[in-house]
What does this fold into?
Amino acid sequence: MSNTTATTQQLGDLSATTLLRFATAGSVDDGKSTLVGRLLHDSKSVLTDQLEAVERVSASRGADAPDLALLTDGLRAEREQGITIDVAYRYFATARRRFILADTPGHVQYTRNMVTGASTADLAVVLVDARNGVIEQTRRHAAVAALLRVPHVVLAVNKMDLVAYEERVFAEIAEEFTAYAGELGVPEITAIPISALAGDNVVEPSAHMDWYGGPTVLEHLETVPVSHDLTSCHARLPVQYVIRPQTAEHPDYRGYAGQIAAGTFRVGEPVTVLPSGRTSKIAGIDLLGKAVDVAWTPQSITLLLEDDIDISRGDLIVPSGDTPPTSQDIEATVCHVADTPLNVGQRVLLKHTTRTVKAIVKEIPSRLTLDDLSQHPEPGRLVANDIGRVKVRTAEPLALDSYADSRRTGSFLLIDPADGTTLAAGMAGEAFATAAEETVPADDEGWDF
It folds into this structure.
């Protein structure tokens, strides 16, 4: 078999495997980057020149063995300080599955980066130093994973070699974390004792922990059930662009282009355009320049309707029998990601799918206390890395699903209108228990909706 034929066959085999998106999280020096480096190295997913570069840098620092954390810590500041600052994305594959990995930072001030990395993840690996156990940052990462509805969480109890591979240490940490994450509503938790530095239970089973009979990290990643079938979800098409060629060949063509966020659309199906509420039927669907009868997420398509309706970027096309509620009053849980605080009465922009509208933060009912999952009522503001409830009034009606039903159309961003800085990532609907609702006086300085 020629090299070209072999490569083509390998690519074909990989295209047939499933894709798992996962993120790593943990406190400072818990060994996230070392774990990722070990995964890449031991699964033979590292190019020769990459490994040689790591070996050179490690040798220049007087290390006896390659520092595998350097495979993901790519920024100069990260390598100099020995920490992860930005989200590092890595793509690799085994014979059983393809992976997109987001290695997120551990410092408290970079918790916002975990929100970015985990927002599209099917699984989160939360690392804990066996010597320190569950700490506040561990609880924060568990809360973020729960809020983002990450369906699978792996607790990787790292540095077991530094606690003599004691089963008791692992069991106590696993019990504490499982109880805490369970209260948050995390649906599935798998605890694995590892040593990323020594390679125990990362890719190969450990010879030092015969008391553990579960999977290695890679084995679990390869076999955890993952469903990307969003075709049965509520069908949603955020309009990104209106196509009107107005040429001799297409004098009356009017199409509404966008990427299907969820569900399936079919020719002849009655649809409703939100927030206007106008209705029509799908006259045609164009996909990659060809007419099709049906399209599904995440395809990018152009819809043609039977009626001429005033539709523009930011509108949402949905099946007439399955419309989300539209409202100017939004209550949601947010992760505050900016250095500047979010205050009651603050004017913001709210970006939902392809639509951006003016809004006012009318109330901040509560802030989550991570130690005991209690709610601190009426904090007045949220600061960097806080998780809390907000009530927002928008200038125009928005059609939001509950985040529990749709991660795509149930999420939004709050943006500073002055400089475009992202302030907070929001998830519509219920997440944790909220404080009693109170009325906030109307703002009469120009953004009162």
In short: The first strand starts at residue 18 and ends at 26. The two ends are 69 Å apart (CA to CA). The longest helix spans residues 167-184.
